[in-house]
């Protein structure tokens, strides 16, 4: 069963959305697997890595921000098979707007398990445009709004927690959190901002080592 997308931070740690773990609250971390090594979910190069521990942000509540979680893997991912994510360390008070970005995820476009990793184009926009023009009411300081720009689909089921990457700077700026409806084109989506959470991420990585 495929649940969510994620971002590899280093050989031992993976970042995703906290809401990905709401559906099965009784499952232990060891019951989750992370697939890595290929852009196809079912491929000879794709390996599964068991999760050993899980930390959700302590202030996370659905639709109220801080939708972020850190996973530690039981065994490290071979470093020759992956590219680690570069975190966005920019000013935590100002949200970047009009930035061209790509969502990289496994979103479902039809029933069943997705097979291929795909990219979807977005552009970050100002909060007031999200509120007024698109009636997006729940956006918090810890989130950023981005609108789907091109392609036949927006972000779909299974893309939750997937990385939003700055096209020009090649940095991770957000994780997909929620939208009104999955797969909608030319609509806005909410992403958890990375920059306000960098200190928390680094501290948890230190504690969980």
From TrEMBL:
Keywords: Disulfide bond, Hydrolase. Transmembrane segments: none annotated. CDD domains: Tryp_SPc (cd00190). InterPro entries: Peptidase_S1_PA, Peptidase_S1_PA_chymotrypsin, Peptidase_S1A, Ser/Thr_Proteases_Immune/Dev, Trypsin_dom, TRYPSIN_HIS. The keyword Amino-acid biosynthesis does not apply. Belongs to the peptidase S1 family. CLIP subfamily. This is Peptidase S1 domain-containing protein. The gene is Dmoj\GI10284.
């Amino acid at each position: 069963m495929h649940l969510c997308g994620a971002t590899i931070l280093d050989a031992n740690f993976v970042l995703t959305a906290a809401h990905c773990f709401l559906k099965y609250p009784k499952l232990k971390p060891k019951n989750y697997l992370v697939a890595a090594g290929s852009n196809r979910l079912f491929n000879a190069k794709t390996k599964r890595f068991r999760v050993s521990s899980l930390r959700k942000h302590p202030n996370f509540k659905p639709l109220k921000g801080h939708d972020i979680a850190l996973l530690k893997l039981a065994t490290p991912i071979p470093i020759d098979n992956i590219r680690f994510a570069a975190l966005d360390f920019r000013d935590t008070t100002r949200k970047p707007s009009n930035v061209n970005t790509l969502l990289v995820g496994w979103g479902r476009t039809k029933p069943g398990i997705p097979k291929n990793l795909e990219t979807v184009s977005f552009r970050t926009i100002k909060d007031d445009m999200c509120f007024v023009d698109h009636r997006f009411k729940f956006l918090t300081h810890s989130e950023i709004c981005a609108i789907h720009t091109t392609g036949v689909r927006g972000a779909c089921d299974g893309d939750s927690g997937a990385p939003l990457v700055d096209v020009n700077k090649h940095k991770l700026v957000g994780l997909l959190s929620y939208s009104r409806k999955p797969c909608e084109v030319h609509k806005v989506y909410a992403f958890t901002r990375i920059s306000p959470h960098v200190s928390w991420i680094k501290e948890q990585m230190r504690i969980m080592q």
